[in-house]
Amino acid sequence: MAQFVAPSHLSDGLYFFHGKRQTIASEHTFKVYEPHTGQVVAHCPIADKHSTDKIIEAAHNAQPKWAELTPLERGKILNKVADIIRENQEALAQWEVRTNGKPITEARMDIASSADTFQFFAGVAPAALKGDYFDLPGPAYDRFAYTRREPLGVVGCIGAWNYPFQTCVWKVAPALAAGNAVVYKPSPFAPGSPVLLGEVLSAAGIPDDVYNVIQGEADTGNALCTNDFIRKVSFTGSVPTGQKIQEACAKRNIKPVTLELGGKSPFIIFDDTEIDNAVSGAILANFLNQGQVCTNATRVYVHRRIINEFTEALLKELEKLRVGNPFDEKTNVGANINEDHLKKIEGMVERAVEEGAKLLRGGKRIHPEGFENGFYFDPAVLTNLTENMEIVTDEIFGAVMLLLPFDHEDEVVERANKTGFGLASGLYTRDLRRAHRIAAQLQAGTVFINTYNDTEVFVPFGGFKNSGHGRENCVETLHAYSQVKSVYVNTQPNLEHHLG
Ligand SMILES: NC(=O)C1=CN([C@@H]2O[C@H](COP(=O)(O)OP(=O)(O)OC[C@H]3O[C@@H](n4cnc5c(N)ncnc54)[C@H](O)[C@@H]3O)[C@@H](O)[C@H]2O)C=CC1
């Protein structure tokens, strides 16, 4: 069992199979960018159907031995994974910054919570992966039934780029705890982190081929979804891709899917709120991870009576915002994932301004000294908006805060719910009765009251409506990575049967 040592570069080994980092021969490659410098750091080979199938087959062959271990035995290995992640938190966080461009202070939190995720599933699996017992007619010892919770086999996972390490862990930890093998396809925009996780898993003692990483774009993802050995797909990404994946998983076989998709979350600030608290909440809800967070609440509804005071306090606070070198401990906002994404955000802001929105700050690409070619965007605040503008209806996935005044509780709840998404929502008020009344009405998988963007591994995470289905981060997730078998038992073989 090799010890985990964080690599100095990842450029020539972005695959993980047979228990180690590898590369494959391929006619096609994609460029890997380092967001904070804007440099191309690797040309990653793309897995075609043949390479994808071979890696999946090896996972299929390796899975039964992993499944033979009891959940407690698997849990001991997963606890070692948590330990190794914690011991290497700084090195892994530095890699996360290089891969994604986020501030180092945020990357450290992602890595720490990833260790917690392994520890949590290692701990709960032995108690959660259990069966039931049922008495059948007659003496209980003659006839009864029981259920077993069994793994699914090989799980295919497809990830987004905004939390490259954490998204991978959220899928892999419960899948492995439940006795499955995993084949993971990261986003081509952030392909490195799941490979590092592979090295951590091997160092902890996960058998070869139980965890694997393949690389590629839509075709590789599709090859994963349509392979017969894949028994479930767990996906994090956009709604249009989620629709394609759900379709692909139904076409050839019937595969269960977990879909963690996009959002357009509302954040409601009532006029009894302490303004400074609401300002911090709104910043947290919008500018974390350069705004590239699926739960982010770009639609900030502020009661008309306090909107001027709130806006003034917000803009003053944002004067302190430091955008730039993500390795600098004082940086609040790092680099966006790539140039195309940055241009998409800039374009949405420009079109909103053309439609009559007023830009109160930021909204443009910036070139911090020493990092001129990195993908930096100065967080925007917009007002003078109408509900049907593209920027108010569509997911931005960038650091753009929209200020929308409201007058009445019923009106704001209706406006908040007027979206096809339903991932998260938030509200600030001192009136707790009102807070819970609104929490019950908001159509979203998570509601934050006087806080925003908290995530804990034991609290369910997932969407309502088009934001997806299935939950991550909770005991029930183990059920989504396992299946129930009912066993009927007759201990009295001579029991007479009457044929009528
Ligand atoms: N609900 C949640 O937990 C989260 C949701 N997201 C959402 O993810 C989106 C941003 O991530 P992106 O990487 O741009 O999303 P995306 O949907 O473009 O890509 C996600 C992944 O799917 C793969 N893919 C693309 N086409 C495919 C196909 N036809 N078959 C199989 N795989 C395919 C991509 O290569 C990538 O690995 C946003 O909409 C965001 O809201 C992001 C993070 C968390």
TrEMBL record:
The keyword Oxidoreductase applies. Residues 27-487 form the Aldehyde dehydrogenase domain. InterPro entries: Ald_DH/histidinol_DH (IPR016161), Ald_DH_C (IPR016163), Ald_DH_CS_CYS (IPR016160), Ald_DH_CS_GLU (IPR029510), Ald_DH_N (IPR016162), Aldehyde_DH_dom (IPR015590). Keywords: Oxidoreductase. The active site is at 260. Belongs to the aldehyde dehydrogenase family. NCBIfam families: PRK13252.1. This is Aldedh domain-containing protein. It comes from Panagrellus redivivus (Microworm).
